[in-house]
Amino acid sequence: LLVAFGGISPKNSQVSKDGIGQHETQDYVRKANRAGIGLVQISPIRDDFIDEVDVEWIAPRPNTDTALMLGIAHTLVAEGLHDREFLDTYCAGYERFEPYLLGDTDGVVKDADWAANITGVAAVRLRALARRMAGRRTMITVSWSVQRCDHGEQPCWMAITLAAMLGQIGLPGGGVGIGYGSNATIGQQASKMPNLGLPQGANKVSNYIPMARVVDMLLSPGVAYNFNGEQLTYPDIRMVYWAGGNPFHKQQDLNRFLKAWQKPESIIVHEPWWTPAARRADVVLPVTTTLERNDISAGLRDRFFVAMYQAVPPVGDALSDYDIFSGLADRLGVAKEFTEGRDEMEWLRHMYTNAQRSAKKQKIEMPEFDAFWDRGFWEFHTPEDSSILFEGFRADPNKMPLKTPSGRIEIFSKTIDGFEYDDCPGHPTWLEPAEWLGSEKVVKHPLHLISNQPLRRMHSQLDFCEPSKNTKIAGREPVSIHPDDAAARQISRGDVVRLFNDRGACLAGADVTESVRQGVVRLSTGAWLDPMDPADIGSLEKHGNPNVLTIDKGSSSLAQSCIAQTALVEVELYVGDVPPVTAFDTPEIDAI
């Protein structure tokens, strides 16, 4: 049995950090289905699983995965289906967790009936799933999307706890995995491919912030905050230098971000496109795309090196990132130290040669660089024997302990408990999200917004190109809405609708579909920000960017991660003249 919280998304598994040579994730799902492995998808979005396999769809209220798992866990205990020997041998702190589960510590029994009231999934269905999971070899997966919510640490921790209660961690086809389907290589067989990369040098600045706390940093210099057991202080940032990525895509509560973006004295970006970030920068350095330079693709956990040939000369005045930084290094008087006397192709040859030496130590023969470059790719052979996650730990937890303080699976963490965070106790806990369908806030904003990855682009990349534009409705990002919710608002497919809450509002094209749970709307991320009046922060966004609606708040004092999937909205038919989308119009540039 495979129980996938958040599904195993077919679109997300087509991409991976640094590239992917062979797309295999969905083939494994198909093989599992043909082999008779039961598939259960727990997600408010049905197409988080490929549609040609036989999968049971359970659609809970968003952000209630932890409560659902607790209800399953209670059934395991109540019916004596949990593995006490595994918990005693391989885990630490279960004796602190079970009293919470049974209600001894807070008077609330976390049984299937309790979970049903929170999740909207019938108690009889939860109990049946618990028995099914205990009755056969079961693998639990949790997609990254499940973490992107208020208290997003809890469902991951609870999934590990649930897998430990089943006692199958370290066995073939059992246990737990985080991130399956979130990108192409998670869960794939590890290859013996050597690393390929540039020397990093040493950063003498030791200060850091959690990635999702950029706006707090810009707006609140000198303010103290908690993070992972430490109390840190936001620095006073005067200049932003952004190379690679689009901050106006990845940031939540964009109207708040627009205020913060005015704080730095200088903002410099590298960009080939007029993205929202480039439009709001002081200096834009035109940089080449991958088609205008040479490179090598070597994906994390992939088994291919791929030669990425320059297809066209740099357009206009564009330079590669390497050439830009080399020029800056020259002006700073450190050109020799930075470039080491190598140009683009010499660095590729140097990196490849280093990888070749590393491979030789593993008794892997690679072709010489020129032969690889002429051929265009090189495939590394993966081990014939499959590797089972935590197999060694299960065989002997004393000889192969985990990298935890106790060396065991920490169902209760003394370390986290010692932080004394109200928003992240010492064991997995149901904590009510800031916004969800079970709160009183639904009176004003009755729909839960899911802002997942788009279907025909990666994040906001190439939103102006045909694959992305062909998914638009009325020229805007499509918002999926259940037929019952659409009928109650007199919305039909193709209508332009307005999504709004107290943080902002945007327009989108209505897609009426049963692929989303009732009470849920889906507006994928990545539509380039396009406010009606760019000079007016809070102006209606015309293109369908969901991050004018999402919350900019840390998941907890432990992780301070983004909670983009925690947001309530209302949707209404847009009345009046529909404004044109201008996100891709190029600005006027004065000739120098």
Q: What do you see in this structure?
A:
With 592 residues, this protein is α/β, with parallel strands linked by helices. The strands form six sheets. The chain has a six-stranded mixed β-barrel. Strands 3-2-1-5-6 form a five-stranded parallel β-sheet. The protein has a three-stranded parallel β-sheet with strand order 9-10-11, with no helix packed on it. Helix 2 packs antiparallel against helix 5, helix 2 crosses helix 6 and helix 5 packs across helix 6. The protein is globular and about 70 Å long.
Short account of what is shown:
This protein is of the alpha/beta class and 592 residues long. The chain contains 20 helices and 21 strands. The longest helix is centred in the middle third of the chain and has 18 residues, at 344-361.
Query: How do the strands line up in the largest sheet?
Result: 16-20-17-19-18-21
Q: Distance between the terminal alpha carbons, to the nearest Å?
A: 65 Å
Q: Which class best fits the helix and strand makeup?
A: alpha/beta
Low-confidence stretches: none
Helix content class: 25-40%
Based on Cα principal axes, name the global outline. Answer: globular
Q: Average pLDDT across residues?
A: 95
Biggest sheet descriptor? 6 strands, mixed, barrel
Number of strands: 21
Q: Radius of gyration, Cα only, in angstroms? A: 25 Å
Oligomer: single chain
Count of DSSP H/I helices: 20
Strand content: 15-25%
